[in-house]
User: What shape does this take?
Amino acid sequence: MAQNIIAVKNLSKSFDISSKEPGIKGTIKHFFRRQTKSVKVIKNISFEIKEGEIVGFLGANGAGKTTILKMLCGLIYPSKGSILVSGYLPFRRKENFLKNITLIMGQKQQLIWDLPPIESFYLNASIYDLDKFEAKRRIKKLSEMLEIDEELFIPVRKLSLGQRMKSELLAALIHEPNILFLDEPTLGLDINAQRNLRKFLQKYNKETNATICLTSHYMKDITSLCKRVICVHEGAISYDGKLDLLLKKLSPVKEILIVCRSEKDAIKLENSGFNVKNKIKNEITIKIENNSITSSLKNILNNFDIEDLFINEPPIDEIIGRVLIKKDYDI
Amino acid sequence: MNLRKYLKVYKNFLHTSFASELEYKTNLLVDLITAILSLIGSVFLLSIFFQNNSYIGGWKFEQALIIQGIYTVLNGITNTWFNPNLTEIVKHIREGTLDFVLLKPIDSQFFISLKKITPSGFLEIILGFCLLLYCMKINQINLNLSFLTLCLITIICSICILYSLWFFISTTTIWFVKTWNATEVLRSFLYIGRFPLNSFSFSLRIFFSVFIPIAFITTIPSEVFLGISQLWKILLEVIVALIFLSTSRKFWLFALKFYSSASS
Assistant: This one.
């Protein structure tokens, strides 16, 4: 049984935020008398993450996902509550703790802009006190996993976004951390680059048993990497559990398009007690609950003359979109 | 602190900085020419001041040149280390890239203060030392070990005071977000350090000694060069340097508790 590597209890964070009225008057007023108010961005949250788990943090913009990640890696002091990551209090930023974690942000970069990535890798290697041979071995291993080769020797400013992101990953993983905090790592990448990055993260997790905490607005990142999701809404956790369970709860019915041999069969099916969404000539769309789908289909195929049928899954983005607006769902 | 590791990291800082600068050859050449022209301009300006006066604030032209020499060395150090690194702190905080620094197992102050260098500043340092050697010749100053030690101590103290002041102002960015202007004001005050402290009025002398200790930065090392400094002044400079250095360090560690990182 895997051990808990992250434990968060009753965590809260408040920020002082100033607001400004529009126009010149508002600007002058803002300059002389700045109005600030304390905003509670994280509200009393608790959760635990086991070693080797990949957990996705879901939420709308400004929900508090990044603030949680930054508190977990020790960048931001919590206002209240406790955090324990790998046995350390993150905000103390002890050397051994920092050697254990990494933070990758899709919209920020640490590579030296004018130099090839390899120079940044060796600089990072010296910061993590790795000798040249060990650094070389790790760069070789990770570059093979990430499928980058010539790019290591081209100045960062001349690399594509995808190549740059791969290099950022290599720079962030050279010290082989056990815990990865990824804040929208696939932001702005094309479909192939996104897929390659996901493949790499899966492989890295499998080979090293690293724990991964991930935020992303691309649902494919979440569905292909995370078995567990934590939904954050206005600073509070609205769901913490398995992703497939969440999807089942949010989308309890499937739509089935049935093409009958004749319109007569379609009318017969329409009047047989199914929840009909619409009917056009010999095509009829019905809604069936997930837990009775097998028996219902068996019944339809045995009792009606059917030419073809299609099961339509609602798009996952649409389902998750409902999670982001709390009033639309209740788990 | 693992000294071997820090030396290794600093070696890498030097390597990457040189490599980055050498990517833009024309820029480096322009910087080198600017350094030479700037020194010529400053000496010319000083000579204009002394055209109708043999003494300014009790200093002869040949003696005032020593202050110019020390100023040039310090300005070279500023351009080599302080300017590329300490102005970057504001950018790190505004854009949130300080996150990467804070998550590295290395002292954050060491990292952000020494990561970059501007090689053209080295020329200024060399030119400043050449001017000082020339001044020693025209002022008939004899070289000996105690003289060199005192000179070195006062120059190192000056560097520490200047660094601490600059670092202190840059650290306030954590609260005020944008403090470019404050560091520019500091640089302007540094220009004042090209002139002997005695050439200013009493109130300005107090201001530049107590509130913004520019006086300590150039005048005391110059007095040491001329052999006219008093021991208490040297001791005072050492004490001021130590207080400034430790205060800026404590202030940085205190300020980090308020760092909220930039939003993504």
Remarks:
- Chain B touches chain A at residues 2, 5, 8-9, 11-13, 15-16, 19-20, 23-24, 95-97, 99-100, 102-106, 257, 259-261, 263-264 (CB under 8 Å).
- Residues 61-95 of chain B form the longest helix (35 residues).
